[in-house]
Amino acid sequence: MVFVTKYRHPVFTGTHLERVEQIMREVCSDFETELAEFNGESNHVHLLVNFPPKIALSRLVNSLKGVSSRRMRQEFPELARHYYRANKLWSGSYFAGSVGGAPIGVLRRYIEQQNRPV
Fold this sequence. Notes:
Helix 1 packs across helix 2. This protein has a single domain (2-112), classed as Alpha-Beta Plaits. The chain has a three-stranded antiparallel β-sheet with strand order 1-3-2, with helices on both faces. It is of the alpha+beta class. The protein has three helices and three strands, in the order E-H-E-E-H-H. The two termini are 23 Å apart. The mean pLDDT is 89. 38% of the residues lie in helices and 15% in strands. This is IS200/IS605 family transposase.
């Protein structure tokens, strides 16, 4: 999955990305799914999530984006200026692709190679 910030505004530093990853791992755990890989840049994040078909993708995405947005604003008040209209950190859209047949190692390498800002 890929989530982008509202208006693709550069929001995250390395510290922010580390905390977003922790939050998203907690949400995935609550859904009994596995966040296999995470990485991102200043305006988007990449997630490789293993989840069973009984989990509705839209509910998982809604929780990942909603919980991370709320907690990031609480923990990092300086990010408030990036919360545009209706206090949203994330764009309303997202990308989700199925990779059932792709080797997991290839996917992990792709996500690991995404640049993290300092």
